[in-house]
Records
---
Amino acid sequence: MTDVTDLMRAKEALIYELINEGVLKREDIIEAFRKVPREDFVLADYIDHAYDNYPLPIGEGQTISQPLTVAFMTEALDPKKGQKILEVGAGSGYQAAILAEIIGKKGKIITAERIQKLADMARANLNKAGYSNAEVVVYDGSTGYEKEAPYDRIIVTASAPSVPNSLVKQLKKGGKLVITLLDEMFLIEKDDKVKKTFLGYYVFVPLIGKEGHSR
Ligand code: SAH
């Protein structure tokens, strides 16, 4: 049996660790980590490990990212209240929930997932957690999601062979995109020019699609 007090203790310990390591910085991002119940985004078998700093399997050969990675990417993305965000790779919906919490009710996040079963799971998880500002679409997000473009921010939680042109196109001027190419994470900033900054090494499952890997 999972003890709620143990989970809450594990959650605080994880947040403390991420702050101490200098990964979690912004007050509203720390608050989002406090509010979003990660135990509701992992498979039942892994609830006791919901606040371990590891990725966990979510079925279909995919994973919910390591909390450290979610924290690092969220800080790098620099999300603001009221923004419109596209996530590529909904998976469990956890990263989308963190962003939905930060952007608030006036913001909107669209999260694309290519595997129907995972999209259904992400949608159920986000509904249960009460994030009506998050919408899950079954779509090849390697081409972005033109229907809701342009976006203030785009986050890709799978590893791409190169930066998909569609994503840069669907980003607003002044917008930011965080994406991992093979195992190198980059921040792409779009202004009159497109600026690319290396952020560090991270491992992700492959981005599969028209502007991603072929399989
Ligand atoms: N952000 C997720 C972790 C995602 S794992 C979380 O918080 O749990 C990466 C996900 O990207 C996988 O579910 C995989 O199916 C999905 N994916 C891979 N290529 C994709 C594509 N072209 N479009 C949409 N989703 C894709």
Note: DSSP finds six helices and nine strands in the chain.
---
Amino acid sequence: MTDRLAVSADENINSIDTDRLLAALGSRSIVLVGIMGCGKSTVGKRLALRLGLEFVDADSEIERAANMTVSEIFAEHGEPYFRSGEERVIARLLSEGPQVLATGGGAFMSETTRSQITEHGLSIWLKVDFETVMARVRRRATRPLLQTPDPEGTMRNLLAEREPVYAKAALTVTSKDVPHDTVVDQIIITMADYLFQDGDSVASQTSNT
Ligand code: S3P
């Protein structure tokens, strides 16, 4: 008999066996991808706590390695320098799974990083609508890419360019402005649905919150 437990999206979160989920995950990292302000760090921390995993933020690790903030790296060395550091740091972090890894919004645009994530991780796109993202990034004006005369236009362009790439993530969780714990529930349900199927054979799964 096949050991199959497909969990439907409306099934109660409490019915999911997280030990079984972690066993199916193995040494892979849960890698959160998506645009700035989509909640990768906030949701990631809560997800890690819920699953008993370490939480690692790639941007913080880059800052630690460089002993500079992301803004300083952009200002003093430029974006290409930041991107190559980002690739190296994420490659190193991926060898340290399982963990919940929040990536910077541009990291998944690198083909090298994407293929390493496919090999050593389970990628989840946190898909958030434009208004929610703008409301969040306005609260923290530290993102170098949004230091433009028209941050809204810049964000629209970034979303248009990046969303087709984020969509290559193994899983997608769409959230509006709902509590972070609701997004965490949805991630766990979506992961269970995917991991409890034979051999992760389903190419891509989407869930809406
Ligand atoms: C970037 C997003 C930032 C940070 C850097 C570049 C991007 O991370 O890596 O400012 O290219 O979208 P967050 O997505 O955590 O804000």
Note: The first strand starts at residue 29 and ends at 33.
